[in-house]
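Per your request, structure below.
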């Protein structure tokens, strides 16, 4: 019997695994307690989920109600989510980094009745807004010593420790089990499973209604497209489960397929955790891969001499081997021997830092620079790129395991249609499906549109915004610009990011920014130039490279001036800008720039929780600096 069928819902996935793949005592979750990694079985997970269900049913929570989570990735997230999902309650996961105002807006907009909080800081944040959240009845801390925090007099909610809920309902009665099972059987595939609020780069966040069918079908077809994922995998989870990408690509895939999930302690400890857990699969974002790439290049070439020559030779050998293999040809005995030597001398050492067992990594959330993807391909580490939005559950396309086209986001998943629409005339240029795939197919670019099982039910309480996003023919408009290239979907930019210069030339920032990001001196780049005569940029330097080059002290980055004024640093950066500019058309080249001392900050509203720069915010905040660049009119073009 297939694990996923037309009647499947999120809460049935784990029970199908226990029934058909694993024994109840087998390990499902792994997390670190103190200095030790602790394994948690399916049986223990389901028992704690039932305790959560029983508690909320006793409190009168019913199908269709909303309960919130504001907690880092952890077993507690899983217990709570599984517990509320199986009684038909809607999961509203809130990014821990959101401001108090944004948290209050989401609690009130969705009508959250209870919220799980993961640490003292988040607990205080909720307490500060609780008096203005009339539907909120329960705050549930999932950490110790929360009692030390004084509850404001005007906050009329029940505060109960998550550990107390689990202990209180540890032995779920037969009657409670029967009620839970009855509730689980009443959950329909088209019921809303989760409200995920968009990050809001341009306005007020909207609650995306994703159904059980959206999630389960997305997992089903992704597993069809990547059939190498099986019950022996160990995923390392570090991207936020409050975001749809990690929720689907790691959590739901593991729930459906019987894989283990290990929770990383933090981003700072990710490298250490990779060595300890030795994952076989990971979901990641391009920035992580870029950092691994940059560190590997720096480590391999910094010493110079023989070591650097061996490193460069190994990469060139890996590239030659990869290109021949990807063309479907046999590399031959001599090149295969060279590749084996490169593996022994160089590649194995880089792979060991990831744990040495990675089958592949799934990259999403932003475009992966083509040269970074090729670098990992040269090492023999597969990076599968995917594309989608919160509104599409999220996956619309993903790289096939056996067919890599760098700079693309893979083949359209089964069961949906993806179109490319002319931005001006609104004529649909082309429509592709999984079944129409042709390795040689290419088309012009336009806005990417999609219809089918992955598309959301709509925006919560926002019919006008839903109608604007999903047209009368049921096409969801992604707002992304793309085309089909070698049969795969290729995303070139965001429609709203498009810069139209004073001469009417269209500049899509993302591909231009990715060209400049080849420089090891640049960590991030923000292009400016809409309705202007030329392109300028705010550049975030690579802190490590900058520190080492100019022997900077830590307090250099604590200075109050937003932008770096030292001429030697500006001249140093200008060398790479001039050199790289020659790869671009004249109207795309950066002709002036400012170097920002520190990265864009999420707490200051400059970037979203998914690390996308808020264009309007940044342009408004740094108006004076931007105007200075145009008044100076200094051309760095060589």
């Amino acid at each position: 019997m297939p694990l996923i069928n037309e009647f499947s819902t999120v809460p049935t996935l784990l029970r199908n695994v226990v029934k058909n793949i694993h024994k109840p005592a087998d390990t499902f979750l792994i997390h670190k307690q103190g200095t030790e990694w602790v394994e948690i079985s399916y049986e223990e997970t389901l028992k704690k989920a039932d305790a959560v269900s029983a508690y909320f049913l006793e409190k009168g929570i019913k199908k269709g109600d909303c309960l919130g989570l504001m907690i880092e990735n952890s077993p507690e997230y899983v217990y709570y989510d599984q517990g509320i999902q199986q009684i038909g309650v809607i999961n509203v996961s809130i990014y821990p980094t959101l401001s108090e105002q944004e948290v209050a807006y989401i609690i009130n907009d969705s009508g959250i009745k209870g919220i799980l909080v993961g640490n003292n800081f988040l607990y205080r944040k909720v307490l500060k807004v609780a008096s203005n959240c009339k539907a909120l009845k329960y705050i549930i801390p999932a950490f110790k010593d929360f009692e030390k925090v004084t509850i404001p007099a005007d906050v009329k909610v029940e505060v109960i420790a998550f550990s107390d809920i689990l202990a209180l309902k540890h032995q779920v009665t037969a009657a409670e089990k029967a009620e839970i099972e009855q509730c689980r059987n009443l959950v329909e595939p088209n019921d809303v499973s989760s409200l995920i609020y968009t990050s809001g780069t341009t306005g007020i966040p909207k609650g995306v209604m994703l159904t059980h069918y959206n999630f389960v079908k997305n997992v089903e077809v992704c597993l069809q497209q990547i059939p190498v994922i099986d019950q022996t995998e160990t995923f390392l989870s570090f991207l936020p489960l409050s975001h749809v990408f990690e929720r689907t690509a790691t959590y739901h895939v593991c729930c459906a397929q019987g894989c283990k999930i290990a929770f990383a302690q933090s981003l700072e400890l990710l490298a250490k955790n990779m060595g300890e857990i030795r994952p076989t699969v990971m979901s990641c974002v391009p920035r992580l891969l870029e950092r691994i790439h940059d560190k590997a290049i720096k480590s391999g070439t910094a010493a110079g001499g023989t070591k650097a020559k061996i490193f460069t030779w190994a990469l060139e050998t890996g590239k030659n081997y990869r290109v021949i293999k990807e063309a479907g040809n046999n590399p031959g005995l001599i090149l295969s021997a060279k590749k084996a030597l490169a593996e022994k001398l160089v590649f194995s050492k880089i792979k060991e830092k990831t744990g040495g067992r990675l089958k592949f990594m799934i990259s999403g959330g932003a475009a992966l620079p083509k040269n970074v993807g090729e670098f990992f391909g040269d090492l023999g580490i597969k990076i599968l790129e995917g594309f989608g939005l919160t509104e599409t559950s999220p996956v619309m396309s993903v790289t096939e395991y056996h067919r890599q086209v760098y700079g693309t986001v893979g083949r359209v998943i089964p069961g949906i249609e993806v179109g490319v629409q002319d931005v001006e005339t609104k004529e649909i240029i082309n429509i592709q499906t999984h079944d129409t795939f042709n390795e040689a197919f290419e088309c012009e670019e336009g806005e990417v549109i999609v219809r089918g099982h992955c598309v959301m039910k709509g925006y919560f309480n926002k019919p006008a915004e839903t109608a604007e996003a999903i047209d009368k023919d049921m096409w969801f408009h992604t707002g992304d610009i793309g085309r089909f290239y070698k049969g795969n979907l290729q995303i070139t930019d965001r429609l709203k990011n498009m810069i139209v210069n004073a001469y009417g030339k269209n500049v899509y920032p993302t591909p231009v920014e990715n060209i400049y990001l080849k420089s090891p001196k640049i960590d991030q780049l923000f292009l400016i130039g809409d309705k202007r005569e030329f392109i300028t940029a705010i550049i975030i330097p690579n802190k490590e490279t900058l520190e080492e080059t100019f022997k900077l002290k830590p307090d250099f980055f604590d200075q109050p001036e937003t932008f770096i004024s030292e001429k030697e640093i500006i001249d140093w950066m200008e060398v790479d800008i001039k050199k790289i500019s020659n790869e671009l058309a004249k109207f795309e080249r950066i002709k002036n720039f400012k170097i920002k001392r520190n990265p864009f900050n999420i707490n200051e509203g400059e970037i979203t929780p998914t690390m996308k720069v808020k264009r309007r915010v940044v342009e408004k905040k740094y108006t004076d600096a931007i105007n200075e660049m145009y008044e100076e009119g200094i051309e760095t073009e060589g």
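The chain has three domains: 10-187, 286-356+358-495, 498-632.

Regards,
D.
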